[in-house]
Design a protein that fits this description.
mainly alpha; 0% strand
Amino acid sequence: MTTHPATQSVRRWLFWCIVAVFLTVVVGGITRLTESGLSITEWRPVAGVFPPMSDEAWQAAYQQFLQIPQAGTVHRGITMSGFQFIYWWEWIHRLLARGVGLVFAIPYLVLLVRGRIPAGLRLRLSALPILTLAQGALGWYMVQSGLAVRSNVSAYRLTAHLALALGILAVSVWTWSELDPDGERSNAAPRWRRAVLAITALIGITVLSGGFMAGLRAGTIYNTFPLMGGQVVPPGYGALTPWWLNAFENPAAAQFHHRVLALLTATLTLILAVRSGSAATAGLLGERARQMMQWLGGVVVLQVLLGITTSSRVMALTLALIASQ
């Protein structure tokens, strides 16, 4: 791959796009854990950059929040200080989301005008600013689902919001890696490319199953591992009809599916990580690719351990979040 300065300019831009998306997803996770996502009941793309600036403005925002169902359920009895705590998390999340849009759009236009985007990448990269705009609209569509009848957002909309974020991140990382002048893609055998692609898809499916689990508040149902309610398959797994609804609307099934997918993903990733050593020796995989596979195996193991710890210590985490308010 060429090391032309124009190509490297695009790669640097994509790097900061990846960082921006990652930070936004992390803060989005915090807003979910703190039940902060519905604290701002209006969508004002421009004026919403500014938080309440006076006691009267805070009171108005507080009273608007008290009108939605979540204020009488999840946040029943919330005080002004508690409201401000969740408001600030959602405000930071929305501010970061706006920043992501600017990070994608402005440098893209500058690079395009200067002719620094390779012709073969113009169509692909033009989708990124458009997708970030769509992500903002989808985020508000998600929030709307929890403002009238429900006390939480739709699991379908939440997972769609997460899926689009993952899609934006995937395109950014994919293009960034393609522009790596030291890449070893040509050294990897076709079957290894297919295996890595399959693992990547499985990781994505596992993450999206976590979206349904979060949307259904399923993470707190069973807090033991490996059994759930003393059984391999949890009680109430197939409670809904038709049967396929259980995967998307049954909290017990959502948690079970997420656990199974996570363990399957970890197992297959570890197998690939172990076999990558012999593949590199046989010339089927480059040394750098081998290192990346082993790094990925370690990260997946860490993620599984964190998931198990979080599930088994959910009450302690909840108390810590309450104490922080």
